[in-house]
Amino acid sequence: MIYCVEDDENIRELVIYTLKTTGFKAVGFGDGESFRAALQEEKPELILMDIMLPGESGMELLARLKGDRHYKNIPVIMLTAKSSEYDKVLGLDGGADDYITKPFGMMELISRIKAVLRRTGQREDTDVLEAGKVRMDVDRHEVWVDGAQVALTYKEFELLKLLLLNRNIVLSRDRLLEDIWGYDYTGETRTVDVHVRTLRQKLGEGGSCIETVRGIGYRIGDGHEA
Amino acid sequence: MIYCVEDDENIRELVIYTLKTTGFKAVGFGDGESFRAALQEEKPELILMDIMLPGESGMELLARLKGDRHYKNIPVIMLTAKSSEYDKVLGLDGGADDYITKPFGMMELISRIKAVLRRTGQREDTDVLEAGKVRMDVDRHEVWVDGAQVALTYKEFELLKLLLLNRNIVLSRDRLLEDIWGYDYTGETRTVDVHVRTLRQKLGEGGSCIETVRGIGYRIGDGHEA
DNA sequence: CGGGAAATGAAAAATATCTGAAAACTTTAC
DNA sequence: GTAAAGTTTTCAGATATTTTTCATTTCCCG
Questions:
Q1: What pTM was computed for the model?
Q2: A196-212: average pLDDT
Q3: Is A151 (CB) below 7 Å from strand D?
Q4: 3-state SS of B98-149?
């Protein structure tokens, strides 16, 4: 899946169309906001992003992405109308993996995308998360314990995913609420406990991988503890 | 650089002091006017702001900031004495990124600041603190002595962390109480002693790194003493 | 020595988490 | 549009663990 963030609709549609006919899955966004919303749901394997966007600039978005450990590994290619050396350096320094100056040809775009994917070539590894007997296929939204599939609800799935993505790191209830429920969630902090319980129950034997860290929160470790 | 706008001088100084010892650059302001003047000169990476200020209220300041495209992206954490739900919603609706109710502990403040910075995407913290045989991984919330893991409770962990963060500096009981228990803690000063004891016990051999400085408090040194 | 400061031991108080169950809310099916 | 099913949230004990207190002993330094 490739995300394209570009406010010019013509360019955006053209890029999406080209990507799709080349065999990629692709979705376009006109502004940073809708893009970020989508990011919550699915991690793309590459991001194409215009430097000039209405509201939040592409550079800001880039900085955010590269500063967030969940997203920093997604390769980003910046698109821009400016071709001055200054902007180029700026873009690369911000952590972009490549840089394309408008107007660009579709063939060039494709070959650059392939080059970046080849270079960063780390696909796979975010799609399936594992811990002990628990295995999660993020894209298919499926969880298996010891070879048997387990049905999880949305919140349970997100909870497990976040814990798996942060192996060994203790996540506080606040952090979990913030990331899964949204930063403006105003409900009980106990809610997390209840979901952890149902998660442990449903995971059966595998449930023991979720450790309680008293006074702090929860985490999933590497399983070399008692 | 972090700006703190708070009219209570005691709280302000305490916050600034804590931020500085944690590795942030920080400046405090007693009113909205001086704060706005400083804003002209330099953009901070985060703003801590009391809701109740003499003259212009914190909410007004917040509204101004979030309405100005130069400043709208600077994360803001509101401080307030009121804990009613109404105020909370008000603060978040105004565009604040987080909200802390007084009285708050310094450790909580720091972790909230880090959370907001993480969310808005800057900074990276993979903190591992060490002293002699003792090694602490802050994110994993784990402590190791001589290769063996030691389980610490919340307060013990915080205590050890603060001492490790202030290598070679003697921390008074008051300072420890203030930072870990919160600035309004009114209990016994002896409480610290008891926690130091359990900490030393649990750390076993490594426990000797915590020195008692008679009449002052405790510290963790570089270990080249007896 | 003597007096204040710190360490100890052990019990009381305070807190955090888990549990079971019901209420509130969503979605799906008819 | 309503009923049924499923999901999420809240709540009130029960339980386990941590934190605090306090009386006592030991230690350090003048």
A1: 0.57
A2: 89
A3: yes
A4: EEEECCCCHHHHHHHHHHHHHHHCCCCCCCEEEECCEEEECCCCEEEECCEE
